[in-house]
Amino acid sequence: DSGVTQTPKHLITATGQRVTLRCSPRSGDLSVYWYQQSLDQGLQFLIHYYNGEERAKGNILERFSAQQFPDLHSELNLSSLELGDSALYFCASSPGQLSNTGELFFGEGSRLTVL
Amino acid sequence: QQPVQSPQAVILREGEDAVINCSSSKALYSVHWYRQKHGEAPVFLMILLKGGEQKGHEKISASFNEKKQQSSLYLTASQLSYSGTYFCGTERPNDYKLSFGAGTTVTVRA
């Protein structure tokens, strides 16, 4: 158990719909990262928040948005869903910036299926 | 920009060795290695900062050649538990993100 909690674990929805994925980082961790992993694919970086502020953005679609709240939990909002958005979405947390603290702690992921 | 990993897959018998390579076209600040078993989350193995250091985790070690922007992960005397997909993650200076390669699937057979 990494200490990172993601909900829901599984989600099935239809095209055109909107979903929200939630991530609670490890206690004390200020950084939250979101990654997308499609079937048998690598980990695609979406976005990084540090203490409530956006620090880095990857190739995140305009239909996707995220935020980190004052209590440090984070939400990833996916709208106008398409079949290709079906994937495993991972949240990871770390105490601070990457190289200063090293390890990213990954949650178990939220598996999204768009039908 | 994502790093390039090779090979894509490797099959080993217990006790055999393997090397996984990771390269970037951009200057790197650090290289991270993770292992993901099927249906599970990625798990951190080690981080290498620029300086050419080498680190180890059990019988798994890695090196980082800062000048060539390349890192290699060495699986020595492989065990069944080493099976999984290995990802290298690269961090560039002031980038604040970890970009992962496509992964190398390692299968260790008895």
Set down the secondary structure blueprint.
The complex is a heterodimer of chains A (115) and B (110).
Chain A: E1 5-7, E2 10-13, E3 19-24, E4 31-37, E5 44-50, E6 53-57, E7 64-68, E8 74-78, E9 87-94, H1 98-101, E10 105-106, E11 110-114
Chain B: E1 4-6, E2 9-13, E3 18-23, E4 30-36, E5 43-49, E6 54-57, E7 60-65, E8 70-75, E9 84-91, E10 99-100, E11 104-109
Parallel strand pairs in B: 2-11
Antiparallel strand pairs in B: 1-3, 3-8, 4-5, 4-9, 6-7, 7-8, 9-10, 9-11
SS field, number of helical segments of chain B: 0
- What value does the average pLDDT of chain B take? 91
Spatial separation of the terminal alpha carbons of chain A: 31 Å
Helical content band of chain B: under 10%
Query: Main interface pair?
Result: A-B, 25 and 24 residues
Number of helices of chain A: 1
> Quaternary state, please?
heterodimer
CA radius of gyration of chain B is 13 Å
Helix/strand-derived category of chain B reads mainly beta
Give the number of DSSP strands of chain A: 11
List the secondary-structure elements of chain A in sequence, H or E: EEEEEEEEEHEE
How much β-strand is present in the residues of chain A? over 45%
Word description of this protein:
The complex is a heterodimer of chains A (115) and B (110). Helix content of chain A is 3%, strand content 50%. Chain A is built from 1 helix and 11 strands, in the order βββββββββαββ. In chain A, strand 5 and strand 6 form a beta hairpin. With 110 residues, chain B is mainly beta. Chain B has no helices and 11 strands. In chain B, strands 2, 4, 5, 9, 10 and 11 form a 6-stranded mixed β-sheet that branches. Chain B has a 5-stranded antiparallel β-sheet with strand order 1-3-8-7-6, with no helix packed on it. In chain B, strand 9 (84-91) and strand 10 form a beta hairpin. The model of chain B has no long low-confidence stretch (mean pLDDT 91). Chains A and B meet through strand 5 and strand 10 of A and strand 4, strand 5, strand 9 and strand 10 of B.
